[in-house]
Amino acid sequence: MVADQERPTSLHGLVERQARRAPQTVAVRCGESELTYGELDARADRLAAHLAERGLAPGGRAAVALGRGTEVYVALLAVLKAGAAFVPLEPTAPDALLRHVLGDAAPELVLTEGRHRVRLADTGGAQRLVCLDELSLPEGEFERPEVAPGDLACVFYTSGSTGLPVGALVEHRNLLAAYAGWREVYGLAPEDRILQTASLEFDVFTADWVRALGTGATLVVTPFNLTLDRTVDLAALPALVAQERITVMELNVRTARRLTALLAETGTGLPGVRLLTVGAEKWYLDEQLALQRLLGEFTRVLNVYGLAEATVDSTCFEVRGTAAAEGAERVSLVGRPFPGTRVYVLGPTGTPVAPGQVGEIAIAGSGLTRGYLNRPVDTARRFVRADFDPDGRVLLTGDLGLLRADGALEFVGRAATVVGPLGADRATTVTTRVKAAARAEGVLRAHPAVREAVVVEVEREPGQRVLVGYAVPAQGAPEGMDGWSLTQYLLAELQGYSAPAAVIPVPELPRTRAGKLDRAALPLPAPPRHTAPRSAKAGAGRAKGGGKAGGGRREVDGSRGCAAAALAPFLAFVAWILTDQLYPGSTNLSAVPMEYHFWFELLYLCENLAFGGGLAFLFLGFPALLRQGRSLRLTLLTHVSVFWLLASWWPQDNLYRLTFATDWPRETAMIYVFNIPLMLAALVVVVFLLSRPKTTAK
After folding, report:
1. Number of structural domains the chain divides into
2. Quick one: pLDDT at residue 555?
3. In this structure, are residues 342 and 364 in contact, taking their beta carbons and an 8 Å threshold?
């Protein structure tokens, strides 16, 4: 009895404690197959003994490559009981990924089943396979080796969104600390039934079974794989949740969005679910609020944030009790740290910045892992020394965020590269770009015809990087929604500030195996001189066809051009009528020889037309300048300058003709009122033409 009260010092010790407390309770259930805690623990002991006989020594590594079912949990626990660390590996992964992980991890054994034997033998070379479905394990006791909290428990391979997947070295103490945080924040209890939807290769899979089996709850495994199988009909999920009486579940952002659409369409809910967590990608506050409204106040809907290198989850934000606020479609709140975790926002110098300032998110605390397999910590540029942290060590995430006044962490965007230690100038440049992309993305999402959107920086030409938006049309979106229209919308809403060079409509955003945005698979924008198709249907067709989708800009806005062409002559006629009223005698040609009358009348006509064109440009020309992508200040100044260059000729020449040549005070005043501003206006236009658009950065 005393032993049951002791705090386990290993991950498998958590499960063994539950097996002693309630051996008849169902631990894992998948379809009609299930294992009690007693059965799970006993089978893991027998398999651990067999693995030890096959050469798996304490401190070693074993890859676990099994399909969905109950046996995978037996295998994971057996590896831990043998004193080794498990490497979770999805057996249906692409050959290149299998080869990379097996080659990098170099496991002593690969635990799998007969149907995957040939493929794993081919990709893994001479790896020693253990097919569990072909084993007959005798009964017997297994003397488990001692395992310390600092021993390696598993190797999580990252999703590879910024390069080849690397193995994060996770110790027992990391997962024990993470479990303690989950238990406290989530209120985990033995009565819970926790749904397992993730694939084996992802860290959330391990988080799910640790939360369930460490608590004495029941882990219910979905027979379908929501993470990897894009063909799964999500309508089956609510029925499964109801049938299995699920109380806790976690989804990735893509699945959460699909679920929200399904529940809104059918009017159903998830009765009995008291906790739903969503993570793995940027999830906006308006989306979180929408799902919370659909599920009701009984369900806690949390946005969680974390990395495999920091043991899955580091912060969370609960939306229940939060009122809808203006701009919720532009904000992603990931909340406060889990117990035992510390979160900082670092500036270009690698030190914490004041609340409200954007910087790189850094994580510290008990969840921080050992580092990367086969990669020295100092070359990874991720785990760095930090004098401001009690442990003196933080993980640089490569993500940007800010701490709000209330202490909540706001996720801004993915920098893709580590910002902190690479120098102040580069860090500032990266931060500026990510902030611009995040702002544009929030505005694009707010468009009523857009269901999902992302704005990223792409290399359109060698050495030239630009912001490009990608938009998924909402159901029932108007036929006229095309890339050019959305580009103009962003230019107007952002007032020319860091607006994307183009917006490309796509039927769906490409996803990685982990369900995250696959940036490498996004279609490239059209070349700079390419014009957008004239019809929305043509634009949509190009996007669906893959290749290079045309989200480019038209050179002329037809409706505004027609309006300007009609307005300029009308205003010129008004100027002609007003000339004799405002400047009597200025156009009198009685003293001019007849043969020069035509040329002077032509001059007066041009002055009137210039004045009319200037006013038309003042009223209608600003959007055309915004499309050029310069700064808002320069664009406004250029707008006024072009107006002055055109319109000032009418009052200037009329006043000159009415001024005596020897009236030097008036002549001097008009030079400074008209001529000097004309020269300055011309200089502003030259600067505008020679300046680089803000959307382009070398």
Report:
1. 3
2. 37
3. yes
